[in-house]
Protein 1
Amino acid sequence: MKKLFCGLTILSVGFAAADPGVVLRFDDAHPVEQWRQLAAVFDAAGAKMSLALPARHLGGEEQRAFLREAAAKGHEIMDHAYDHALYSCRCRDAAEFAALSNLPFVVETDAPNLRLCFRYRFDMDHPRNRRFRGRVKGGRLIVEKNEAKKFQRPNKVYIPSLGRVFGFMSSQDGEMKLYSFWYPTPAAPPDSPEEDMVYCDQRSFSPGDDVLRFQAGRSRDAFARIGLPEPKVWIQPGGWEPWLTAETFRRVYALEFGYTGADCLVGCEKEGMAADLSLAPFMFRPLPYLDSKAMTPEKIRSSIQDSVEHNRPICFLSHMRPPPGGTWGQWLAETAELLKWLGENNIPVKTFSEVTARMSGITADEVKAAFADAEPWRKERVGVDETCPAPWTPPTWDDSTKTFGCWNRTYRFGGGIMPDEILSGGETLFARPPRLEMDGKAVRVAAPSLSKRSDEAVETVATGLADGYEVKSHVRMEFDGFTWVDIDLVPSPEAKPFASLSLDIAFAKNASALFNSMCKQYMDFKPGYAGAFMPFSLDLFGYESRTMFVGNDDVGFAWHCESLEDWRVEKGEDSLRLVPGDDANHLLLTFVNRPVEKGRPLRYSFGFQALPVKPMIRDWRYRRINGGKPGDFMGYFDWETLHNAPGAEYATADVKERVAKARAKYGRLQWYLAGFTTSPYAKPWIRHGGEWSKTPPAAGTVGSPGNRRSAFCWLCVGSPGYADYYTWTLRDTIRKLGVDGLYFDNQDAQFCSASVHGCGFRDWKGGARATYNLRATREFNKRLYRMARREIPEGPIMRHMSMKSIMAADAFADTLVDGECYCGTISRDESYYNIFSPDMFRAMYRASPWGMPRYLIPQIERSIKLYAKEKGRYSTPEKIRAEIAKHRPAARHFLGYMLVHDTLVWPGGGVDATKFRAAEDKFRLHPGDERFVLYTNGGNPFGYDGGRFMVSVRARGGHALVIAMNDTGEAQTLPRPDAAKWSALGLPAEYGLRNVETGRAPESIPPRDYAVFETVAKSAGKAK
Ligand SMILES: [Zn+2]
Ligand SMILES: [Zn+2]
């Protein structure tokens, strides 16, 4: 295996593959004589200048002739928008004005100036927008002084009572006059009272594709009329205009018109953060030039030197204006000096397009080809249907008892907004019906009635009344027990304000011994987030987790939510609390503890699922990684040339031969995929990345930059079209390449606030928050599962995740892979001694409460390689042998935890399970079903005192494997088993025990070590 999982390193990058080079850019139209003098200086130095021109601003034939001549000499003439504006343009004459005024995207006209104003899209909930208090008086914006200081150009404000966006400018005396959005013509709006206004970030505006096409066409026509080459570069006009994002620019200018460079804004959440490598050509930002007093020739030279050292290009922007106090002659002489210095130091002066064409590693032809793709996935939504995939069976609904049924579980409804009673495998989960309370009074609804039914889901509705609110509960229950509840509170005229709304889910004590908050700490694990049930609070408004597991060693209950839009909770940590009690353990949800104003409809939505989620796959303990037997599998990682580009076109050239070879050696291969990230170089991302990107992190944030093959961007599986693309393309690849099994990396739910996906919400204080996209992730995984089960019915599906056992989304696989999250933490102690504890391990990593077997990957060796202070500890065969010997105790401690908990181990990394596996294979030959009796189980013959010495038993056909894990600091001896419990497992009274590794009879087990014994005929165990 060459590559293991995505190393989640995030770096800020600007450029992928680029050479050093200096671009000197001069913006806007200037007197032809100045241009001539500048061109003479460049020509003398043999250097190229890059001019950014609004075509409408060009004067007479003399200017045009100069530009033609300059272009012929290789200087670059760039598109600076036809009229130095994107959202408006002035026409050449009245006839043209009359003709163009009818364009569908023209929303305002200004006849005296022949100006057309274009439609813009405004995203009011853009995460960078800010609310503030303000009012309008005499055409001016009145705000508090401190607020005004935060405003930045280009200033745009949305005033709700006027229902419009205005531009505004601050004058010297602090007055802020309101203007039109498009151009600084006074708007003169009526006075308005103080209200919450929206200060608009420029990224919250975007033009329609029709406007962009019109603008690109107009510039290109003008260039052609002048006799200039087609522009390849677009330069954002500044001043009054909100900027275009690189993502939007690329969609039309690059893909439809072949532009290869631009100076746009990155459309990400935080400006200056990492950029998608493939967007780099469209956000080549300049530094100021000599026009600014702060930018001396020395400073310019040192910035250039720095860029050469870092092997990256650099651009300077000038408006051909000497700084205050300077003269044109001085400015020109300093430019000549700079060009001379560049020549002497062999630093090339390049045009803007020469530099940007090399930045992304994608050629203009490839970009055009991406656009030409037919995108067949738009026609068929693969995996969207109402079927129930195996091993599940279609859900049932008994209307007489109001009971929902699915594999191993029943949910019985009474008069609550969720089931009154849940049984999993016959075990009752609740101590009493969950109680929804408004202002201390129980809210009840009538028994639910069936509203929809298919092989996929049963849906019910129920209504009730509470303090003048109509209560509607809509419940959707799917074949795997995943249930989503929407509670609507619809006010009647009598509805009163209320001050509290909460839900108390009371669990039976024995069904709630453990909890798992599923707070994922990838790099530095801290204990305390999972284990024995205890007082705990989870801030659902935060970004660690919006899910909670409560259960025991056999069954469980998982609760989830996505958005908290109508939750009014004073302190976030009160939103979800675990409270132990004498007769029940409580999961308390606080929806409201601040008074809710009267008369607003409210919605509270959440999901839950009783567990285990499905029967475990057959012979799961004996399906092994790298085992080489039928049913075993081998992860197959390097089949594609780009990170997670599922298309067959990205497969390596020799994929078929290599797969045949690997298959002959290992059996079935599981092909590596990672649907939550994709390559910035994959064609669909080039076209749709801006839309598919997860926010935050920033649109286009790249992991593993600098390597075309492993670079990746995060995306939101809830974005429109992405899941259609992915499921269709993967199916196509399975058919074309003969894929036999699938391995999905980290495809768990993410937090996203991109409103184009329907993600993101405002909390009750008005703050922007991200949605936890669990249902979108679930739908995506479900579609992939349905598709895979049809295409490769026997093909194994494995899902890699870390610490988040969220069956709602993860159950669409046969096995899970976990444990990578400790990679950073392990470097501290180089062991799991301070990480694993019995209750924590049981709450997180056993198979039975979830219904999913999982492999844990040991991280000892990998962590040392990546994070240890001393490098190169695994560099030579001798060093490797020494390290393995040194870490044998830590590796045995790790393995012991796996075996005593019936958790599967991913062998390697210093962990050797060979002898155990051999004993297990022998054990398997005994006839009959196998039983695993965990150390906590009352039927375990060896008992358990609650400490760190644990003995579990596997029984089969009158034989046993006894697994003892000693995680104490002292040596321990195996106790004598309880005879009655031993025989209840079908085990003989007369037997011997033999250590499967040493072949010896039981001896004391060293601290932090394990021992596995097999039963043998009585005499054999005693012999050496
Ligand atoms: Zn300009
Ligand atoms: Zn999203």
Note: The longest strand covers residues 457-466.
Protein 2
Amino acid sequence: MTVTHVGVLGGGLIGMSWASLFLARGLKVTVVEPREGAEAEVTAFVAAAWPHLRALGLTQAEAPRQPEVSNDINVLADVDFVQENGPDRIAIKQDIVAALEAVIGTDVVIASSTSSLMASDIQAKAVHPERILVAHPMNPPHLVPMVELVAGRLTAPDTVDHAEAFYLAMERVPIRVKKEVPGHLANRLTAALYREAVHMVAEGIADVGDIDKAIAAGPGMRWALMGPHLIYHLGGGAGGYRHYLDHLGPTQEARWAELGQSPLTEGLKAQLVAGVDAEIGDESTEALSERRDAALVALAGLKRQHGF
Ligand SMILES: NC(=O)c1ccc[n+]([C@@H]2O[C@H](COP(=O)([O-])OP(=O)(O)OC[C@H]3O[C@@H](n4cnc5c(N)ncnc54)[C@H](O)[C@@H]3O)[C@@H](O)[C@H]2O)c1
């Protein structure tokens, strides 16, 4: 099935980013968003994203294309794929699915961007649950290519195949997660690291800024290129991953036993926020996002150049 018209349900941070990507790839895009003033915000977001999308080679068009933006879900009657980006609450997602099913065709895929909810729960009350899956990106999805696909208990296998083909056409890197688990795949990995990053602050082991610097100047340099398994294959030298596991596996296990978890008390939250305030100084969030986005575009080019 060819997708030419995508519905973007929920035009917040993630919806606006998806919409920008889909427009760049030449699709007709209709955004449904109840927020007052959404059309102007979406237009501004797409305009700001466009130079990056061009630099990434995702579009040749000089002028940003624009989506239709409406607060009426009925405008989605003709779409052939839906990317759902509403609030991350199961009752709201189920209501959104019910509202969508009253409007869209029975075989139109509904792909939810949810970071935390299970496809099985989102599809639980659906009339056609077989066309519903999780397609979870990392922020911002127009610049970070991974999208993890998770089927629910009632998702048809060809829904996942169809979604995978769609995201490949969008120049994304789809990952198939074989079992439903909270946090899917990528957020479980980031949560494992973040738990320890918070715990180290709580324990007074290091300041927020130094923990962030340790990652960005240390393992984060490699993580943009390869994951932990391949990294430790290289860490094993000539003996590869087998040597690494035999040689340094026991010290990894000893560290795993030491990792901690601190509750996010109000006091700890204040400490974390103060740490980030000190880290960013007087740079605005907008300026920091723009520097991040420009660097992500350059990084994508470097990765391509070096075969990663
Ligand atoms: N923010 C992230 O880093 C991130 C990353 C990956 C995935 N996600 C997921 O993406 C989804 C959206 O998150 P977000 O960060 O864009 O949140 P957000 O609050 O920026 O956007 C949600 C939008 O949905 C709109 N909305 C509310 N009810 C609606 C309805 N009934 N129909 C249509 N739109 C409705 C809201 O007005 C809001 O603009 C969530 O499921 C979240 O888990 C977020």
Note: The pocket of nicotinamide-adenine-dinucleotide is lined by residues 9-15, 32-35, 85-88, 96, 113-116, 136-137, 139 (CB under 6 Å).
